[in-house]
Specification:
The protein has 19 helices and 22 strands. The protein starts with 18 loop residues before the first helix and ends with a helix.
Length: about 725
């Protein structure tokens, strides 16, 4: 933010040379022939202004006929110089060549002169004149732009002087006397008054949408002990996105108080400076992609305070080039709804509590939000990480963008948090052809003692919540979004959906299916899982929920069941086995041994496994009707998913014709495949596989859950696990 001042200073860019011209001049200076002519044949390089302008307006140019002027003067000292006007065809050919190569070498000039019937020197002079013309044109344009900037700044300076002349003392209300205080102090007073006014204005706007602030931050208590077996808590799908679990404290987090806002701004600005260093500095801060905590403490003494006792530090950095415009990435990160959808595999719930600044000049530069989010791993065995933080976006001097998160737990007197986010976020740099380079830093302090032993190694090595996971999801989703917008769809392959509207509707339906699966399988505090005893090595966890007034789900009582287990098979092989329709009857009990056939297909990524498919199960029993299954399989280096749901034939016909997919009822089931984090020495390691089912056990929402339904789902998931293990062991053998 700029303060007022008496001294007028032009913007720095007014004194910087035009980058295009600087590059052109550098290239000219490296050309030996061109320098030679600059020193010795200056009069022969350029045409007279009026002749050059005339040539330009007629798309032509004039040069001395024959050799250089000195040669002509030596032979004809009293003869007046003659000028030769090039033909329209010659000019067009040289103009076209100039666009491709403004600095032809001797060989190119000779070739061009032979083709156009000109002397090499004529070609050489024409290109010199053309470069001078372009240089003058750009200089005139730059001067005009800078002149307009000067006029604007001069007007601003006059207004500031008038404002200073009429300024009043904030204490007594009388006129100020500049001589009584230093110039710097006067500047700070003006800046403070302006910032106070801006904060008051933004607070008044935010208050309309946020509601009344609460004085205390909700207690982040550990998840409650599960009820006894078969005493199942009941959630609700309809009318409440978070369910109605009375132990869910996420909903009670609201906006910060007025007194907190100045501190939030200060934390956000400091976090942005820290993020920029964390993304750009190598050693000694980062040593082989591992953060040196002692060096970090010396480099950033400020922040959110010391690490709490019993907490563990996770710090990681990752970079990738993704197929998305940098502006769109910023918009996704600053819009909580888009952010939650794109990162559905990581973000189970998120909400914006307050908007302290919306940015300037119609973009997110300077935008500041207060948010709360819950981060997840797709398994009930890893507790979610709830965080309360500020998100700040800023455009850097080089044109890149940065978005940073910083925890606000220090604003509360005694917040018993289990996860704190130090400066974490990403630097986004524009690349050619609509690509962007993203450098992500994830730096948290966490109490992860509640993680199940099966997942401890994976979580502690950063595979679950680290920067690599965030970047991999972003890269994958950018591919998926690009496929939605694709128009050049090949129709040669059987089953490929080429109808643009049908593709978008089907991809939108599959997206909702994936989001529903990821949100329903984690250990979110909105869920209450019950562990069934007597099921063997892998515990099966179940949960019931009511589906009411939700067109996207069938009404009634839904029973969810999930279990996680380790299998000594690389994730890639497990993924390929589960997504292949030809091997589906080896594990899918509900297909009843029928032949599975792919009816429609949409590829949405580089990997052949990234696709949305419509499968038909041809029942082996002629008395049973065929079943349609919508399936999305997606994979990246950090996780793979195979998610599916039975769908109605009539509803899918509407979707394939471009109809609204929001009214297609879905109950997704599927698999989440994660690497175990033990891949060393070129090996691929094993897989952590989560199997989850959702079954409609009664179409009446008020019905009571029977023990028989629980036993049936328990047997279903146990049999599926055994079939997968048997099939994988056969492959391994």
């Amino acid at each position: 933010l700029l303060g007022f001042g008496f001294n007028f200073k032009c913007k720095k860019k007014m004194f910087e040379p035009n980058m295009f011209l600087a590059a052109m001049n550098n290239e000219d200076s490296n050309n030996h022939n061109y320098n030679h002519e600059d020193n010795n044949n200056n009069n022969e390089r350029f045409l007279r202004d009026e002749e050059f302008d005339s040539a330009n307006t007629k798309s032509g140019s004039e040069n001395q006929e024959g050799g250089s002027g000195n040669d002509q003067d030596n032979h004809h000292p009293n003869k007046k110089k003659r000028y030769h006007r090039h033909t329209q065809l010659q000019i067009q050919e040289m103009e076209a060549f100039f666009k491709e190569c403004p600095h032809p070498d001797d060989k190119q000039r000779k070739q061009l002169s032979r083709e156009l019937g000109l002397e090499p020197l004529q070609v050489k002079f024409w290109f010199q004149n053309k470069r001078t013309q372009m240089k003058n044109h750009h200089e005139r344009h730059e001067n005009s732009h800078l002149r307009a900037e000067n006029e604007k700044l001069r007007g601003d300076n006059i207004r500031y002087r008038e404002a200073l002349a009429n300024a009043s003392c904030p204490n007594c209300g009388g006129p100020t006397v500049i001589g009584e205080m230093s110039f710097d102090e006067h500047q700070l007073r003006l800046e403070n008054a302006r910032l106070r006014e801006e904060i008051d204005r933004i607070s008044a706007i935010a208050a309309k949408y946020v509601g009344k602030p609460v004085s205390s931050y909700p207690l982040m208590s550990p998840p409650p002990l599960p009820p006894r077996p078969l005493e199942l808590a009941m959630g609700n799908f309809g009318g409440d996105v978070y369910g109605n679990n009375p132990t869910d404290l996420f909903k009670s987090i609201t906006a910060p108080t007025e007194s907190d806002k100045p501190l939030i701004i200060d934390l956000a600005v400091s976090a942005m400076e820290e993020l920029m260093k964390m993304t750009q500095v190598e050693e000694p801060l980062w040593k082989s992609l591992v953060l040196d905590e002692e060096e970090y403490a010396r480099t950033f003494p400020r922040g959110i305070g010391p690490k709490p006792a019993g907490f563990r530090t996770e710090a990681s950095r990752e970079s990738a080039v993704v197929i998305m415009n940098h502006v769109n990435i910023v918009e996704i990160l600053m819009d909580v709804n888009q952010w939650s959808v794109i990162f559905a595999g990581m973000v189970s719930r998120a909400v914006t509590l307050a908007v302290l600044s919306t940015g300037v000049a119609g973009n997110y530069n300077g935008a500041l939000q207060v948010m709360s989010a819950e981060f997840q791993v797709p398994t009930p065995l890893v507790p979610t990480r709830e965080t309360y933080f500020a998100r700040y976006c800023k455009q850097q001097a080089d044109g890149s963008w940065a978005v940073v998160d910083i925890s606000l737990d220090s604003l509360q007197p005694n917040p018993p948090v289990r996860c704190r986010r130090r400066a974490s976020g990403c630097l986004i740099q524009e690349m050619p052809n609509g690509y962007s380079k993203v450098t992500w830093v994830e730096h948290v302090e966490v109490d992860d003692r509640g993680v199940h032993d099966l997942y401890k190694h994976m979580v502690s090595t950063g595979h679950a919540f680290g920067a690599k996971r965030w970047v991999a999801i972003l890269d994958r989703q950018c591919e998926r979004l690009a496929s939605v917008m694709a128009t050049n769809i090949s129709s040669g392959e059987v089953g490929v959906i080429t109808n643009q509207e049908g593709r978008r509707s089907m991809l939108k339906l599959a997206e909702r299916m994936v989001i529903s699966f990821c949100a329903g399988v984690s250990a979110s505090t909105a869920h209450t899982w019950t562990t069934l005893s007597g099921t063997g090595a892998e515990d099966v966890r179940v949960m019931t929920r009511k589906s009411v007034d939700d067109p996207g789900r069938p009404p009634g009582i839904v029973l969810s069941a999930a279990t996680s287990f380790w299998i000594p098979v690389p994730p890639k092989r497990v993924f390929d086995f589960l997504r292949d329709e030809n091997s589906r009857n080896e594990w899918d009990i509900l297909s009843n041994g029928g032949v599975v056939q792919e009816m429609a297909h949409i590829a949405n990524g580089r990997d052949t496994g990234n696709c949305v498919s419509l499968l038909r199960v041809n029942s082996a029993n002629s008395s049973q009707s065929n079943m349609l299954i919508l399936q999305e399989s997606c994979t990246d280096p950090t996780a793979s998913f195979v998610i599916y749901a039975p769908v109605d034939i009539v509803a899918m016909n509407i979707v394939l014709n471009g109809g609204d997919p929001d009214y297609v009822a879905l109950l997704p089931s599927g698999f989440a495949i994660l690497p175990d984090g033990n891949a060393t020495g070129g090996g691929e390691g094993g897989s952590l596989l989560t199997v989850a089912f959702q079954i409609l056990v009664d179409s009446v929402p008020t019905a009571k859950l029977s023990l028989g339904s629980v036993a049936t789902v328990n047997n279903l998931i146990a049999c599926t696990v055994e079939r997968i293990k048997a099939a994988m062991s056969c492959e391994t053998a």
